[in-house]
Automatic annotation (TrEMBL):
Domain of life, per lineage: Eukaryota
InterPro entries assigned to the protein according to its UniProt record, in alphabetical order: F-box-like_dom_sf, F-box_dom, LRR_dom_sf
Name this polypeptide is given: F-box domain-containing protein
Domain (F-box) ranges: 1-50
Signal peptide annotation: none
Amino acid sequence: MSFNTIPFELIAEIFEQAAVVDFLAPVTLSHVCNGWRKVAISDPSLWTTICIETGQTKEITTCTFVETFLNRSKSLPISITLVDRRGSKLITNTINLLAQHSFRWTSLKLTHSGPNCLKTLLQPAPILRDVSITTSHLDDTGFYTISRFLELLPSMTTLSLNFKMQPAIRLSSIAPSCPHESLLDLTLKDWCPTPLLAMLGHCVRLQTLSIHGLDLHEPPPVYTDQNPRPINLPDLRKIYIYQYCLNDSICVLFDQLTCPNLRGLDISSGFVDYFPFPKTSVASFLRRSACPLTSVLFEMVQITEDQLLECLEACSKTLEYFDVIEQRDVFCVGDKLLNKLTAGTEHHDGAPTRCTTLCPRLRAFQVNDALDCQDGALAAFLRSRQPSNIHNLACDHCTPLDKASIRIRKKFRENLGSDIDYLKENGHWVM
């Protein structure tokens, strides 16, 4: 089949798939032959993704490159990725050029090492939905500029702000004049708790919150009283927190939050420095929120068995997925927890008593290096959650376990013979 006999629409669709993989594909395609060039240039959807990294090309080449994409994409919405790790003035000139088309921006990902380009961001972008800003240097003026820029984005649904919070930054710098009513997904990295809470207070419809590295170096608070105002996020469904090392900042966050519709909570820590899990802050947050939590993950957070029990009791009626990962000498899954999770009948003075099983809807139970119990306790819990056993037990309604994945520390294995035999027989054993 000759190229000239292939329908134009089919060729354009093939080219569009190539552009998804490589944003430079339209440039390459337009240089193959005259026929391909006509197709590539006449299809504006091929030119809607603009990616620039300073230092790779000269300024005049970069500006020409950007102008080419802007012109050939016609009036279609565009996605922009700009990377400037050298503090080059080129990034400012590039944004100045792109700013003339800010009404077409749908996605903006900006990585820069200096404050030069921030003022050029102050352009209305009515259809911009996805925003990501990463910088290593940010003073009070730069922070204020970013805050003002966010006010110009009425359609923003996803926001990621990745920069080290400086103690000198005033809290008033981030308080917008109106709420971010369209924002659904927020990611913050290296922020302090107080400005983070101030930001959350304006995200009235937030559904997903990701926090990487809460910092204890607080800027001076501006509250007139000693207690910050509580933050209620009625639509929040998922919280993910990753701490380089646990500290009291997580308490500041959970002591102020209320999330009545929260479904998932993940708390992870990276470094092995010992810092105890934040007392009762998380459990109090769950009780205060009275949320229908279905999934919880604690990874290397030094949580004790009693603290874990408090958290599980606060969401016992709705929890379906339980995951604990530890690689330190803190073992939070013991006899007390397993006994409460075991579906069955308690007997007092010979008379059967209907018991309330902890987390009756539990469907997945994953424990990695956090188990320390008497031999048989784990097997008794897992056996009690089998469909055949649940049907005959005099307890509240329980959902059978769909998945159980257990990894046991080597030093405990010789004392858990019957548990390990049961795990191997039922496919739950993880070496």
